[in-house]
Amino acid sequence: MPRVAIIGSCITRDVWPIVGEAPPQDLLYISRTSLASLFAPPLNGVVVSEDPPASLGVSTHRAMVADIRKTALAQLVAYRPTHLIFDFIDERFDLLAAQGTLVTHSWELDVSGYHRQAPFNDAHAISRTSAACDLLWRQALRQMVDILDMTPLGEARLILHETQWASHYLDEAGGRQAFGDVEIFGGKLAAIADYNAILSQQQDAFSAALPRARRVCAPGPLQLADVRHRWGLSPFHYIEDYYRAVWREFQALGI
Fold first, then answer.
1. pLDDT tens digits, residue range 150-180?
2. What is the pTM of this model?
3. Which candidate in 9, 32, 86, 119 could, as Cys together with 45 as Cys, close a disulfide (CB 3.0–4.6 Å)?
């Protein structure tokens, strides 16, 4: 039986439920992180709630806490997946530099209020679109290559789930509409073209660093958002046929 690990986002995790199939029996899902923060030291002194705020799900709260405490990488190595899937949709978030480490400034961190605790007092933001953030990400990619070489993760089949933010979406009547700028969260607007350029650069860099990774990508016409998506309208909440195309590729790879 496959043991599947995902370092990524809901575009990969949701493939199975959206197409009406059972997910892999053994599945480890690591989200709300960046490669840069995944390899950073833990941020000590943050007090987290045993019960997540009502607006946060248990799984996303757990993922955000793992990003603060940096427990995900050790969990991943111990899990010994047969298949390790990457997607970079969660790389849309800015980073926070605090006390010599990095934390992903996700919506969940914002809602939790943890970023208002003392360990974040002198934190400064590193914009996702900045050259500094790109450099930190590429340094972390080199660390990922080393981890794959030095641990049982090197035995896993690597898969890169490539995509782009959709420039158009289907409305309630099934009509095709164009996105303008979209909101990351908290009123921060993003130009789709800017974030698609980042995705393209990251996906190309990953494939160059790890050429043995299998690239999985839905056809361009299926990279279309849908207002009726289970999580609502977003440039990376796609039509059902997108997920069905990716699911077929996963099947071909033994998942």
1. 999 999 999 999 999 999 999 999 999 999 9
2. 0.96
3. 119
pLDDT in tens, 21-58: 999 999 999 999 999 999 999 999 999 988 887 788 88
CA atoms of 91 and 104, how far apart (whole Å): 9
- Residue 203 CB-half CA count within 13 A: 21
Structure tokens at 23: 């997910």
Tell me if 31 sits within 8 A of 60, measured CB to CB: yes
What is the Cα–Cα distance from 151 to 154, expressed in whole angstroms? 6
pLDDT score recorded for residue 52: 83
107-148 pLDDT tens trace: 999 999 999 999 999 999 999 999 999 999 999 999 999 999
Q: Which helix (H) or strand (E) holds 198?
A: helix 192-209
Strand partners of residue 216: 161
Contacts for 190 with CB less than 8 Å, ≥ 6 apart: 92, 181, 182, 183, 184
What is the CA 255 to chain-centroid distance, rounded? 19
Residue 217 structure tokens? 């990508």
Could you tell me the two tokens for 198? 């980042």
Q: How far is CA 228 from CA 171, 172, 175, 179, in A?
A: 8, 7, 12, 15
Which two structure tokens, joined as six digits, stand for 113?
Answer: 């209020």
φ, ψ dihedrals at 223, nearest 5°: -80, 65
**Domains plus CATH for the chain?**
3-252 (3.40.50)
